[in-house]
Amino acid sequence: MTLITPELEEARIEELFSSVQDSVRGLRHEFEALRERVAQGEDVKVAEIKSKISDMNSVMINCQKLEVSLADIRQKQSRIAQGGYALDLDKARADIRCALARIRPCCGAGAVSE
Questions:
Q1: Is residue 23 part of a domain?
Q2: What is the pLDDT of residues 82-104, one digit of tens each?
Q3: Prediction pTM value
């Protein structure tokens, strides 16, 4: 049987999510600085702007993936018994069925109904 403890995975993803949020804040400050440079009439290379937009898109995609992962873990955790631990009975059943399937042929037993 498998023991499920989602707290560690949730903490890891929250840490990554926090890091991505910091990246978003940093990129926002870079965009603001870029906007100020343009407002002051400074020449800004198109490649620099495209690079910042590409960076922002990458960070936003990572942020969305982490949000989905965090939501999945929290949803799974809400179905786990109080205390944060539960047995994965579906996996246990599957493991037992596989073990029985290997034993049946050697003992000459027939199929087992479910």
A1: yes
A2: 555 667 788 888 888 888 887 76
A3: 0.49
